Amino acid sequence: MEKQVKILIVDDEYSFCKFLKAFLEKRNYGVLFTTNGEHALDH
How is 1-43 classified by DSSP, letter by letter? Predict the structure, then answer.
């Protein structure tokens, strides 16, 4: 069984994050995103 690769997207454009998240999830990646750099450091 393969482990799911997880990706953290950090970009200030919310719509781009949503698009990229949907694109990657269709390819079986686990995706989190944030539009705030400080918040990204918490992940």
Answer: -PPPPEEEEE-S-HHHHHHHHHHHHTTT-EEEEES-HHHHHT-
